[in-house]
């Protein structure tokens, strides 16, 4: 056993639907503006430009069903996303082999301190202050790909207090799941335990304390999160 001078952080693990075992998380990659309608609503050209990624931290993931409204912000937005969990990795993975890396899928919400992200954008600074804060990635259990099959289409929605806010289809992804995995592997060495948040459809918007968010991805399941 390795001795450490301070207590070692615990490995973050995600629940697996129908199983007692859990999925260990190594890194959390997020792709930006991966639905054309969302790119437009954020003021960008929806054409197929090269994808770009940012990261959240594994311990930003939250499986409790509660999202504590964060400090230092007055404008927190929801972004419903399909999450991809990898069982294999590598470098320069060909697109036609990328789905072989997938272990399973989950429903996630990329919570964003939009005001802080906006300030960072204006100043040309990184986005972490708006994206990678505590509890900023509510996520449901991972469903094995052997159960879901390859997800190329299917409804993705988010309701707040029962009112539909976001609605799209996985077939509207600008960069498809195999392409995301392949592209990432050209710049990072992907490894087992990496997860990818695949982007959000149009309709992102603010939440306040007491709101109940209900996300759903066809073939994967639902996620209910209360803003505390």
UniProtKB/TrEMBL annotation:
In this record, what's one Pfam family? FAA_hydrolase
Keywords of the record: Hydrolase, Metal-binding, Pyruvate
Under the heading SUPFAM superfamilies, the entry gives:
FAH
Task: Write down what this protein is called.
Answer: Fumarylpyruvate hydrolase
Report domain Fumarylacetoacetase-like C-terminal positions.
28-227
Stored Gene3D superfamilies: Fumarylacetoacetase-like, C-terminal domain
User: Example GO molecular function term?
Assistant: metal ion binding
